Amino acid sequence: MLTLGIESSCDETGLALYDSGRGLLGQVLATQVDTHQAYGGVVPELAARDHVRKLPALLRRLLSESATTLGAIDGVAVTAGPGLVGALMVGIGWGRSLAWALGVPCLGIHHMEAHLLAHRLTPGCSGPCFPFVALLVSGGHTMLVLVKQVGNYQVVGRTLDDAAGEAFDKTAKLLGLGYPGGPAIEAAARDGVPDRYRFTRPMMNRPGLDFSFSGLKTQVRDKVGSVSVSAQARADIAAAFQRTVAGALAGKCRRAMEATGAADLVIAGGVSANASIREALDDMARQIGVRTHYPPLNYCTDNGAMVALAGNLRLREPSQHNTNLTPRPRWSLEELSPAEPV
Ligand code: KG4
Ligand code: ZN
Predict the structure, then answer these.
(1) For the purposes of burial, counting CB atoms within 10 Å of the CB of 196, is it exposed (0-12), middle (13-18) or buried (19 or more)?
(2) Cα-to-centroid distance, 191 and ligand 1 (Å)
(3) In whole angstroms, what is the distance from residue 216 CA to residue 74 CA?
(4) pLDDT tens-digit profile of 211-225?
(5) Pocket test for ligand 1, best of 168, 169, 217, 333 (most atoms within 8 A of CB)
(6) 46 falls in which pLDDT band (50, 70, 90)?
(7) What are phi and psi for residue 124, nearest 5 degrees?
């Protein structure tokens, strides 16, 4: 079965083709960084308009690069939420129209489930064993999920305020490093001395699996106000911030692995592209004898491939075909139902 995946929930327009037998046939991506950079963050209306402009040419490019025709597509999968309502509406309207014209089913995909499954895009991925724990760290979400099977999710920890990616973005803004903040902080931190400044790891002195990152942002703001912010000081603060986030994520993941007894930890979402965070999680995993699994680097941030893959799993189930798709800007993973037998 060949599935076309469409991602348009925020500031990336992504399309991909995933085949049950042959895997990923191709993917194309257009980023809106240039559009939003001047505003220091995503402007929802501009995001939606840009998706409208880019989708037709992207589909033509995808079909040509993967030597596929529209007639070969067996189903369309489109991100239905969570995300920006206008941006979601564009993808859904477009995906539904295309599916109708082709006479194939259309399915709404949960954006965070697509992230959670993206490690399956790793060539030769042997995959984690169920049940496993997933750490989802994106611009809008930070959560720990106990995954009993595909579609059976229990959220066991979440952020009480800012998401990890949001903390990177806000901290980068405070440091004048630009948008998007994650890659900017990671690049600046390479020249930084992480020990020069010390920040308190958020929530580590409290029991449980929840996160909080707004206090860390305040610690950075206080530091920025109290030192002369030379390029070196910016790099040092970026390095200390990144190390603190990595420590907080690793600490909570350790607790989650110990509490659930799971042997596999999947990490996904834009922040999982960060090398220092990967290193901290891998170190922790080695210490307690569990395995880590990541998506390939180019599928950590938003993309169409993860949506095509998630759709491919779910389109095999006729009960999941949805002719009445509506955008779901807020949508809990726990509302999903299993996609395949355990
Ligand atoms: O998953 P994603 O592409 O979009 C959402 O679903 O939100 O995640 C975007 C977030 C942004 O906050 C961005 O700053 C962060 O992921 N990010 C990173 C890195 N690359 C992207 N954070 C830390 N290090 C990175 N290398
Ligand atoms: Zn995302």
Answers:
(1) middle
(2) 21
(3) 47
(4) 999 999 999 999 998
(5) 168
(6) very high
(7) 75, 15
User: How much distance in Å is there from the Cα of 298 to the middle of ligand 2?
Assistant: 12
Taking the complete model, does pTM exceed 0.90, yes or no? yes
- Which ligand ends up closest to the CA of 273? 1
On whether the CB atoms of residues 11 and 32 are closer than 8 A, the answer is yes
- What SS3 class is residue 276? helix
Tokens of residue 251, six digits:
């600490």
Whether residue 140 has its Cβ less than 6 Å from ligand 1? yes
Give Cα 229 distance to the centre of its chain.
31
Looking at residues 126-147, what average pLDDT do you find? 96
**Ligand 1 mean position to 341 CA, how many Å?**
32
Binned at pLDDT 50, 70 and 90, residue 340 comes out as low
Residue 125 carries which side chain, given as an amino acid letter?
Answer: C
- Nearest 5°: the CA angle 52, 295, 162 is 70
The response to whether residue 302 sits with its C-beta less than 6 Å from ligand 1 reads yes
Beta bridge partners of 144: 135, 157
Q: Are 265 and 257 in contact (CB under 8 A)?
A: yes
Instruction: Check if 162 has its Cβ closer than 6 Å to any atom of ligand 1.
Output: no
